[in-house]
Design goal:
With about 450 residues, the protein is of the alpha/beta class. Helix content is about 45%, strand content about 15%. Helix 2 packs antiparallel against helix 11, helix 12 crosses helix 15 and helix 13 packs across helix 15. The structure holds D-serine.
């Protein structure tokens, strides 16, 4: 039986991804070999346990796949021989939770990056006293702390912010907080920090207070694999990553942990927090890791960063406020508050939602994002986040980045015409604007010249 309804929707999504510029930094486009592995019969198998040590029969082939995946991960991430590698966590959040479950007891303290500055929900997040504690949120929660993510319910979360002027990590401040709070775990990494992280320094801070150090490299995994970003393997106690962002594999995660922690991490993934792994995804991860060993992939990683840097410098020339002044990675964070957009009937400056929607109508898919020292909220933030992994996979280079920056600027200028409208009306009007339609057509033509397999 063919499910025409779902098949048509998949075809529509395939078309959407191809005719627009996918500029969300956590997304990418996998090779056909990765997609074939993920869509294979491996999805039928149950294989609780680890290679050669399973609870179900019939896993001799799955054992070979998982073993190969681990072997490739060791090579790609230059993992010390005595470190453990787990490829079974279903996603990045699960990988992080598995690490906490292995290393901590409920109630233990975690020191992680403040979410609106670019941290991640799975590093712990409560509302409102660690959040954007506006009057409204104080009324809603009556001043009480509400754990938004499960991690904040189970552990005591303390967070560090970026420096107010530079928007960079303030390592002295992190050290000061660590000495005062004495956390059991310090985490680096997140979703919107565009700069390299000093893993050695954080490792030393953690050691000085007797904490473990977890480096979450979900975003930059492919850049580490391509040798354009620093590698925390061998420096941090544990490294987690997702496999579907810059690494260009299927959804999934990898955990690297030093010898003394490896068994606890494995037991935490299974039977601690998960049942059977997704063997089809593990095969897909193995394929993407093989691809990541190639010279082409190194060139891809380098170009991804060069493209992000070009986009940042072009947007900067056009008067955009690029946080930290640029990027070392695949993403840039744009604070739109200097763009003089008066949003909605109240005329506030939190234009991230409006601009992200306008850009999407113009064929450029980004996401609204909070910025450090945010004055809006998570649903109505002041910024947008833009990434180059997918457009670089398409083969685009600096020239195309300059074109994209110009279009982004045009869209922001058009948006000013409609910004005082409420969101639904803004959405409707901007989708029909002639200039926006023209940009969408130009984007489509550009995309047609950079095909995807
Ligand atoms: N949702 C991912 C991102 O966009 O960065 C993080 O989990």
């Amino acid at each position: 039986m063919t499910d025409k309804q779902i098949l048509t929707l998949i075809e529509n999504e395939d078309e959407r991804q191809k005719i627009k510029l996918q500029l969300i930094p956590s997304e990418n486009w996998t090779s056909k070999s990765v997609r074939d592995a993920v869509g294979s019969v491996l999805m039928h198998k149950y294989s609780e346990g680890s290679a050669l040590n399973r609870y179900y029969e019939g896993n001799d082939i799955v054992d070979q796949i998982e073993t190969l995946c681990i072997k490739r991960a060791r090579k790609v991430f230059e993992v010390p021989d005595n470190w453990g590698i787990n490829v079974q966590a279903l996603a990045g959040s699960n990988a992080n939770i598995a690490v906490y479950n292995a290393l901590l007891r409920p109630g233990d303290k975690i020191l992680s990056m403040y979410l609106p500055d670019g941290g991640h929900l799975s590093h712990g997040w409560s509302w409102p006293d660690m959040g954007l504690s506006g009057e409204k949120s104080k009324r809603v929660y009556k001043g009480t702390k509400k754990a938004i993510s499960l991690v904040a319910k189970f552990y005591d979360i303390v967070q560090y912010k970026v420096n107010k002027e530079s928007k960079l990590f303030d390592y002295d401040e992190i050290e000061r907080i660590a000495k005062k709070e004495k956390p059991k775990l310090i985490i680096s990494g997140g979703t919107a920090y565009p700069r390299e992280i000093d893993y050695e320094r954080l490792g030393k801070i953690a050691k000085s207070v007797g904490a473990y150090y977890l480096a979450d490299i979900a975003h930059e995994a492919g850049l580490v694999a391509g040798r354009v970003c620093k590698n925390p393997a061998g420096i941090a106690d544990v490294v987690t990553m997702t496999t579907h962002k810059t690494l260009r594999g299927p959804r999934g995660a990898i955990i690297l942990s030093k010898k003394s922690l490896a068994k606890a991490v494995d037991r935490s993934v299974f039977p601690g927090i998960q049942g059977g792994p997704f063997d089809n995804n593990i095969a897909g991860i193995a394929v993407c890791l093989k691809e990541a060993m190639s010279k082409e992939f190194r060139r891809y990683a380098e170009q991804t960063v060069r493209n992000a840097q070009k986009l940042a410098s072009e947007l900067s020339k056009l008067g955009f406020d690029i946080l930290t002044g640029g990027t070392d990675k695949h993403l840039i964070l744009v604070d739109l508050r200097n763009k003089d957009l008066k949003i909605g009937t109240k005329g506030n400056t939190s234009s991230g939602r409006y601009i992200a929607r306008a850009l999407d109508h113009a064929g450029m898919t980004t996401n609204k994002n909070t910025v450090p020292f945010e004055t809006g909220s998570a649903v109505d933030p002041s910024g947008i986040r833009i990434g180059t992994p997918t457009v670089t996979t398409r083969g685009m280079k600096e020239n195309e980045m300059a074109m994209i920056a110009g279009w982004i600027n045009q869209v922001v200028e058009v948006a000013k015409k409609y910004s005082s409208l409420e969101f639904e009306e803004f959405d409707k009007q901007i989708s029909m604007d002639k200039e926006i339609t023209k940009i969408r057509d130009l984007v489509k033509t550009l995309c047609a010249n950079f095909t995807l397999e």
